[in-house]
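Structure first, sequence second, as always.
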């Protein structure tokens, strides 16, 4: 069956380009690539041309997500599947594909209104080593795991599950969370064959399209150093260091300059063969800074 293989890239819109360059490179360790374009710069995490395009239009939110398929046959099969399911989408021109540094591109909107793209053949700069913005002991976990995972805004959860099922992701309500008001929510986590989850939703109402992007280091030292720098710079931490129940990643959540969260992590396990569910995290993840849409007790 045709399916997307991974979350390949992301576009974000920001108001403070300078703060974003400093945060991405000096705090997180990504490579900032500025090609002199007036309205954007890029963040590199590996030898792809980029994984994140930072558009300086000022929305301080997610601009779009890019999901990868293997190649042109899978791209055609995906278009057929979307057509049969009566999902509206647009096959993009060569110029639009060029803009994303891919060969094949289609664009649509997911049920939550999040701009969603499917592509094949990213530009990979195999000649140019990844050069982190600060020294890293290891690198970022990418390849078949993709860029990372994110939590998106969705109003109609069954519609969102059906849409991502169509793209080939699998998942179900996975974590039972008791809210301070006593209500129990069970967010849905969805995965490809790689990362334990690539997209999740169902945390309740959200002000932005995205709650957080999770990215992962291969070496625990780099996560610890990121945490030191976040503390030195007094950047808001929404959830403290802890280990999740589902992907068993050791992570913490810090505010980015657009006031949504980046979850920095290490040590996640991959997707399981069969669905499981959980009622609490392994340890940690204590609540700290409020107002980032994660005022929830995972312990
Ligand atoms: C996650 O990555 C996450 O962000 C939450 C809220 C719960 C489990 C795993
Ligand atoms: Fe997460």
């Amino acid at each position: 069956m045709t399916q997307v293989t991974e979350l390949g890239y992301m576009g974000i819109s920001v108001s403070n380009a300078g703060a974003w360059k400093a945060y991405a490179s000096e705090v997180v360790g990504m490579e900032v690539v500025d090609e002199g374009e007036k309205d954007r710069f890029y963040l590199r995490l590996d030898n792809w041309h980029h994984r994140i395009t930072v558009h300086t239009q000022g929305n301080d939110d997610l601009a779009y997500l890019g999901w990868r398929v293997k190649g042109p046959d899978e791209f055609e099969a995906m278009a057929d599947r979307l057509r049969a399911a009566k999902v509206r989408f647009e096959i993009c021109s060569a110029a639009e594909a060029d803009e994303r540094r891919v060969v094949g591109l289609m664009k649509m909107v997911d049920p939550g209104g999040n701009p969603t793209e499917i592509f094949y053949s990213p530009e990979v700069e195999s000649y140019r080593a990844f050069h982190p913005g600060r020294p890293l002991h290891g690198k970022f976990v990418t390849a078949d795991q993709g860029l990372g995972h994110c939590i998106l805004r969705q109003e109609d959860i069954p519609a969102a599950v059906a849409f991502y099922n169509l793209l080939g992701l699998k998942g179900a309500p996975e974590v039972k969370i008791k809210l301070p008001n006593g209500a129990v929510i069970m967010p849905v986590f969805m995965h490809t064959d790689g990362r334990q989850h690539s997209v999740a939703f169902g945390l309740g109402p959200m002000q932005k399209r995205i709650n957080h992007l999770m990215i992962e280091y291969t070496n625990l030292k780099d996560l610890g150093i990121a945490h030191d720098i976040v503390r030195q710079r007094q950047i808001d931490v929404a959830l403290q260091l802890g280990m999740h129940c589902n992907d068993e990643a050791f992570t913490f959540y810090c505010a980015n300059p657009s006031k949504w969260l980046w979850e920095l992590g290490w040590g996640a396990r991959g997707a399981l063969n069969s669905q499981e569910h959980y009622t609490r995290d392994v340890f940690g993840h204590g609540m700290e800074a409020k107002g980032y849409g994660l005022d929830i007790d995972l312990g």
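Margin note: DSSP finds five helices and 19 strands in the chain.
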